[in-house]
Amino acid sequence: MAGILIVIQVISGTFLGMHYLSDSFQAFTSLNWIMVDVPHGYLIRYLHCNGASVFFIIVYAHIAKALVYGSYCKPRHPI
Length: 79
Known about the structure:
Structural class: mainly alpha
Shape: elongated
Number of helices: 3
Number of strands: 0
Helix content: over 70%
């Protein structure tokens, strides 16, 4: 799941980067333009934003599972 989400992040970030202007005077205007005038821009932006949150939730769950099961310890025996 984390691999699929990181691919989605890269693709949506590339599309957002094509339309975003990083100039301090035009940054908000370019975000507004992405949300309103770019076809499905709002969907790509929300997918990118929420995808990042879900990615980190999955990564933290994976780390928590490793800590609970003790899979970082040396004698790794199958359960």
